[in-house]
TrEMBL record:
GO BP: response to antibiotic
PANTHER family: ESTERASE, PUTATIVE (AFU_ORTHOLOGUE AFUA_1G05850)-RELATED
Pfam families hit by this protein: Erythro_esteras (PF05139)
Coiled coil: none
Record's protein name: Erythromycin esterase-like protein
Domain of life: Bacteria
InterPro entries: Emycin_Estase, Hydrolase/PRTase-associated, UCP036794_erythomycin
Length: 442
């Protein structure tokens, strides 16, 4: 990837442009202008450069709380599984028998990578939401939902549990779909993907029929405020998960696009469910929320939720906020399913976006991208670091930088000079002591 960093920008001019546009901030702020700028949007997307840094979660907590309390946002939807996040949603909304604490509910998030949502930072957010919702009516309580598509078997189990209680006549339809997938469960979708190479659409008919029948019977379900909606969403997850795993074996951008199209459809469903004036906060990786058209993802045929939301709601109704850092530590694994580890994030590659921001000054800062749209950054792709749940710091120069036109990719960007590792709940040495999770006593 080094060719993206050489002879592409006049570094001196670029750093001067960054210096003029930068808004430095410290542990206690000041992000007031940023909150005002993004708070008018219907959808605010808060990114992250990795899934394992404490500071990204801390600042997204802070910004989300202010958007909820000051700007009237109705829910947070994250790059997580629907069934797990829905259980957390029921806890923060005080539903009966929904758990005794955020800590206990989050311990049930057991899909690898567990640290993404089962961590102290989300525990702190959950308790804030729980307390914020105390005095609100059911329809006004702030929600927390999952946007992702991985939870095929968990979603099927949730559907069965609901139907056995509320609609026994539908159980046989759900069981037929569940039993079709069950032989492939042990490999988390990979076994099903391989099987579809030999028998295309192996279980597609079963899940499509299940979704159709649930939607037909939906008006007759008389349960609490959200349970029927959640059951329909789980059926939608099953349909899209089947598509995702079928596409995965073929390679290319199709499986990625299925996933982000599902995220966008889920966002639209949630906004509709919460009413015509509802407002959403999205938490997902920069590669999902930063407009794909401003990166090399577009040339590979990939779309993402940031691009799709701008197209659906209009650019003035969507605020995309990216995050990044120069160096630090991160929680990640050496391979999918590996034991989580606290890894060193090396200083950013020379010529990258993070490198330029560090050379502007070694302090935390944020930018409105409008202030950079008459600069070189509008014309020249710059490498922008992206760390996934699988990470090899020693090789990051070969695959962890996304060439990006930054003023088009985001509406705002938050830069942190040094980041620390997230605090997972499932690592024993972390004990039960909650770390400092807010910028300052809020």
């Amino acid at each position: 990837m080094d060719h993206y960093f050489k002879h592409t920008l006049d570094t001196t001019v670029s750093i001067a442009d960054l210096h003029r546009a930068a808004h430095p901030f410290t542990k206690g702020g000041n992000l007031d202008l940023l909150i005002d700028k993004i708070g008018h949007a219907r959808v605010v997307m808060l990114g992250e450069a990795s899934h394992g840094n404490h500071e990204y979660y801390k600042w997204r907590n802070y910004i989300s709380q202010r958007l909820i309390a000051e700007k009237g946002f109705n829910f947070i939807a994250v790059e997580g599984d629907w069934p797990d996040c829905y259980r957390f949603n029921r806890y923060i909304k005080h539903y009966d028998q929904s758990g005794s604490s955020a800590f206990n509910v989050l311990h049930s998030f057991n899909r690898w990578p567990t640290w993404m949502w089962a961590n102290w930072e989300i525990t702190a957010l959950g308790e804030w939401l729980y307390n914020y919702n105390v005095s609100l009516s059911v329809e006004k309580k702030i929600g927390f939902y999952g946007l992702d598509v991985y939870s095929l078997w968990e979603s099927m189990e949730a559907i069965l549990a609901y139907l056995r209680k509320e609609d026994p006549a539908m159980v046989s339809v759900a069981e037929e779909a569940y039993q079709c997938f069950e032989p492939y469960r042990t490999e988390e979708g990979h076994g099903y993907a391989r099987a579809t190479a030999l028998v295309p659409e192996l279980c597609k008919t079963e899940v499509v029929n299940l979704l159709r029948d649930i939607r037909q019977r939906f008006p007759h379900y008389d349960t609490d405020h959200e349970s029927a909606f959640s059951t329909e969403q789980n059926a939608l997850v099953a349909v899209h998960a089947e598509n995702y795993y079928s596409a995965m074996i073929k390679g290319g951008p199709h499986s990625w696009n299925i996933r982000d199209l599902h995220m966008e459809e889920t966002l639209e469903r949630l906004l509709q469910f919460h009413g015509g004036q509802s407002k959403a906060i999205i938490w997902a990786h920069n590669t999902h929320i930063g407009d794909a058209r401003a990166t090399d993802m577009a040339s590979e045929g990939m779309v993402n939720i940031g691009e799709l939301a701008r197209a659906k709601f209009g650019e003035h109704q969507v605020a995309l906020v990216g995050f990044g850092a120069y160096q630090g530590h991160v929680i990640a694994g050496k391979r999918w399913g590996a034991r989580m580890a606290n890894m060193t994030v090396p200083p950013a590659q020379t010529g990258s976006w993070e490198y330029l921001l560090r050379n502007e000054g070694d302090c935390n800062k944020w930018f409105l991208m409008d202030d950079l749209r008459n600069t070189q950054f509008l014309e020249v792709p710059v490498g922008h670091r992206a760390i996934g749940v699988v990470y090899h710091p020693e090789y990051e120069r070969y695959g962890n930088y996304v060439p990006s036109i930054l003023p088009l990719r985001y509406d705002a960007f938050i830069y942190l000079d040094h980041v620390t590792a997230l605090h997972p709940l499932h690592i024993k040495p972390d004990g039960t002591q909650m770390p400092e999770t807010y910028p300052f006593g809020v």
